[in-house]
Amino acid sequence: MEVVGEKGLARTTLADVADRAGVSVGLVQRYFRSKAQLLRFGVEHMYHRAEQRLEEVSDGPEPPASVRDWFDRACETLLPLDDERVRELTVWLEFLPAALADPEMLRMHRDTTRTLVDALAGALELAAREGEIPPDRDPRAEALALVACVDGLTLHHLVTAGPFTAEAVRTALTAHLDRLFSAPGSPRTR
Question: Any idea which UniProt keywords this protein has (predicted)?
Answer without folding.
Answer: DNA-binding, Repressor, Transcription, Transcription regulation
